[in-house]
Amino acid sequence: MAITYDWNCKTMDVMVQMDGLTDVVYKIYYKVTGISDTKDAQGNFYKSVMNGIQAVTYAPGSPFIPFVDLTNDETVAWTKAAMDADIPGSANGLEANIAYQIDLLINPVSKTKTIS
Q1: In the Cβ-directed half-sphere of 65, how many Cα atoms lie within 13 Å?
Q2: How far apart are CA 101 and CA 104, in angstroms?
Q3: What pTM was computed for the model?
Q4: Which candidate, 66, 21, 46, 52, places its Cα nearest to that of 108?
Q5: 3-state class (DSSP) for residue 96
Q6: Cβ atoms within 10 A of the Cβ of 20, count?
Q7: pLDDT at position 30, please?
Q8: In whole angstroms, what is the distance from residue 106 CA to residue 46 CA?
Q9: What is the DSSP string of 33-95?
Q10: Mean pLDDT, rounded, for 99-116
């Protein structure tokens, strides 16, 4: 089973002014969607989504990208780097957790039942 991961890191909190710069990102809201290449009985691909918030730090004097020029690819890279700085491998761990959740959907180990 192959899984495609889509990282959405387009929403963030910014400091209005910091060290003479405008709209300096300090918090990124992420949404990671994993979509399997396996379909359920209705023909839908199995998927799992995880949301979270990641703090990022701008080091004064380092290269600065104005907010209007930011791309999702750039903020995804920042998010993953900050996650891995906090806990090494945690960005990969998040994707592994999504894969595990999808596997549980495909191969459940428990069910909810109600007696009549």
Answers
A1: 11
A2: 5
A3: 0.88
A4: 46
A5: helix
A6: 8
A7: 98
A8: 8
A9: EEEEEEE-TTSPEEEEEEEEEEE----TTS----GGG--HHHHHHHHHHHHHHHSTTHHHHHH
A10: 95
